[in-house]
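Deviation from plan, reported transparently: adenosine-5'-triphosphate complex.
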Amino acid sequence: MDINVLIVEDEFLVANDLRVIVKQAGYKVTGIAASVEEANENLQKQKPDLVLLDIRLKGILSGIDFARKLRAENIAFVYISANSSQKVLEEAKSTDPYGFIVKPFREKDLLVALDIAWYRHQHSLESKLRQEELLQKQLTKITTDPSGAEQKLLKIARVIQPYIPFDFIASKPWPDNAGQFKDIGYLRIGFDEYQFIGEKELMTITGFKKDVLSALIKNSDTNAILYSDGIPKQKPGINSLQQLLFDSFKLESYLVFPVDPGNGQMVHYAFYSRKQDVYTRDHIALLNRLKPYLVALAEKKIYDETSSTLTLVQPDSVNKKNSEAANYSGSHPTFKNIIGNHHLLLASLDLASQVAPYNTSVLILGESGTGKEKVAHSIHSLSPRASGPFIKVNCAAIPPTLIESELFGHEKGAFTGATEKRKGKFEQADGGTIFLDEIGELPLDMQVKLLRVLQEKEVEYVGSSAPRKVNVRIIAATNRNLEKEVANGTFRLDLYYRLNVFPITLPPLRERKSDIEALTLYFADKFCKEFHKPFMGIAATMMDEMYAYNWPGNIRELENVLEQSVILNDGRSNLELKRSLTGTRNELSGKVNIETLEDVKHIQRETERDYIISILKKAKGRIRGVNGAAELLNIKPTTLESKMAKLGIKKDFL
Ligand SMILES: Nc1ncnc2c1ncn2[C@@H]1O[C@H](COP(=O)(O)OP(=O)(O)OP(=O)(O)O)[C@@H](O)[C@H]1O
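Because the crystal trials were delayed, the predicted structure below was used instead.
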């Protein structure tokens, strides 16, 4: 094995221990540094493949500072720290490490961490290179395409979105022709839906006249520039057209990149995002590597052709489009049932579609009811395993004594009640995907066994010691903060790193309120069809309340509310809210004065109480078992019972 390891550790004895262990395991140690300064010197002499990095070091700079440099240089690193407090974990996590070991550590833990780090690093590099190659091919094809600038930019937008995320993309020829407005752009309005924005459209949206727009484009950036937090006001040389776009489309960050093919006609690409701090030097580096493939628009004449196929955007059509009933996340068939086009949702779907083709494990994070299972299913459907099985396991719903046989299978007579030999979920998922929901609930001894499956790709039946090979992709999900669980010792760090190769976080509904209307219409339509009732629209008061509410149960709760409204609707009038949305809105808007922490806690308790009652009703009072309230809430039945006792919910509430 020719993997070079640099050890950055200020405690001499620990550093020496590390050196001995990693050397014995076959790694090469390139040096030991006690401070960031020394580590930098080492780095210059010989670039390591992996760095073991203590957080607290000699000098002012910490291991976390050095980690940022390692990230920029694409060197894998594993933290080793005595301090595993939540705060340190959070800060360390922001540097996206490849592993984390807590002192005192066992030799085995260290070697597993190094192994995982190397696997992750190799894997991410390989997949990055594979993906970049594909992107180059797609861009080359677009360059030779005979279509005009609008069509070309749309094609570029589609292929480049997963690599450089944007909510608005624009291109302009440079130098411009006597201040003529030649900028063209696309606003992202769905997973794979873009709306053209040219001069006419911009005039309509902003109400500005042609000459005003032309005047705005006089100054332009000539170098690659990124702004992570808005555009500095009155910065000389900044094209204030960008400010106009920022204001019109609620944008937050921006990256401009000029491409000069050497024919005297440059083209500027601009990427805009509604999120802050999106663009990094990595994006510029990628664009630099792609430069030869980005010349598609660097031909003066293609901007001169006026396209007759353009549809004129009407005054508030951007907004109108956003609120149309069938506002699905895009025409992409796999995501057609995932409703919404908020940029936070689209960013998660981008990640899902990027990771889908590979066998990489995925960890889906997000509150209960945010659509984790739906996204897991989409990843499966988009993968080469789509024709194989998709097996769901709710780790919270299986009694601890049965988990092992449920996951890995059992031999006949392995335990009382095992009258037949039975395949476990892993074997059932062979050739397909296993979805381990609520992975945070898995007992520690099962976590060890799961890690083994991930490493060895084989399972052992309960009652047998003969391993069987399985070919399964793992998608895990949790609504818990796994780092906190790791810090508390209830979740294994090595398993966390193995699963966390590719995390996707789904936003809670309260952070994507612009999707509420589309979701409401979607579920109203769905339940009206299901219950054979005509859909007569939604009462304005209901919509107002839905917007004002903060949806602790997310989309599942919204779905339940709609189901109830449709069931109780007389089929002749608009849908109305048949239960108050836990009273939160009224209470928050004044009924209860929020003056103390106790008031806040009271509202929280009431919200939780009402939500649990609504789920219990849906489960017809059943707490345990398939479709029981505990399963729907994704918590243990015992946890639900103690919550009910605490909140004073009696079984006779129905
Ligand atoms: N974007 C969406 N569009 C339409 N329906 C959705 C969307 N997201 C979630 N749903 C629906 O909401 C319900 C909850 O979704 P799902 O079970 O995928 O959430 P989850 O995050 O896995 O929840 P839990 O953590 O409780 O398991 C399901 O009925 C699902 O079909």
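Residues 337-340, 366, 368-374, 437, 477, 479, 555-556, 559, 634 surround adenosine-5'-triphosphate (CB under 6 Å). We consider this an acceptable substitute for the interim report.
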